[in-house]
Specification:
- This protein is mostly helical and 192 residues long.
- The protein has four helices and no strands.
- It has a domain of 128 residues: de novo design (two linked rop proteins).
- Helix 1 runs antiparallel to helix 2 and helix 3 runs antiparallel to helix 4.
């Protein structure tokens, strides 16, 4: 047996030993890293699913609360000139519930701060402060006036028209933008 042969056999044995120990060690490290990455991916996926669920709930709650408030206000303005008994009932109902409804709407807007982009949060606040609170204040002012005067009657009709048509359009547009911004809107059907 030559020296060269013994060196080659020794090198072969050494390579086999290193490979026998190193390969499983390296494979184990790769598998551990893959498992960590998979756990991180699964956690991110679960977080994303929870975020989407919270965004859907936000839109549903916000829309429901806005429409409850709007319909309550519309009832008061509609029945004011139509039916005194229904007006008194609608007014009492609005007076009893409006603060709670407005508070609930504002609470949903506060929740949105972590679920929507800053610009959309600003749009939601603008609807609340520039539309809803203004309408509530305008209704309170109208209730103090004498309905028998043409100017006050016209103001009641204008408030009803605004709440039914213009506010509805603004709310629908805002909810549509909100859903689009969050990627929660169905793809539009287009006919070629």
């Amino acid at each position: 047996m030559s020296q060269d042969f013994l060196e080659k056999v020794g090198l072969l044995v050494l390579t086999a030993l290193v490979t026998g120990f190193a390969a499983p060690f390296i494979l184990k490290r790769i598998e551990e890293r893959r498992a960590r990455d998979q756990k991180r991916f699964d956690a991110d996926l679960a977080r994303q699913a929870k975020l989407i669920d919270a965004q859907v709930t936000l839109i549903e709650n916000f829309a429901r609360l806005i429409w409850e408030f709007q319909l309550s206000l519309i009832n008061v303005t509609y029945y004011r000139g139509m039916n005194p008994d229904m007006y008194d009932q609608a007014r009492r109902s609005y007076d009893e519930r409006s603060a709670m409804m407005l508070g609930s709407i504002r609470a949903e807007i506060s929740k949105s701060i972590r679920l929507v982009p800053a610009a959309m949060y600003g749009d939601l606040k603008a609807l609340y402060y520039d539309e809803l609170l203004v309408l509530d204040s305008r209704l309170s002012e109208l209730q103090k006036g004498n309905y028998d005067t043409p100017a006050i009657r016209g103001a009641w009709q204008a408030l009803n028209h605004y709440a039914v048509y213009e506010l509805s359009e603004k709310v629908d547009a805002l909810i549509d933008r909100l859903a689009s911004t969050l990627g929660l809107k169905a793809a539009s059907d287009t006919v070629a």
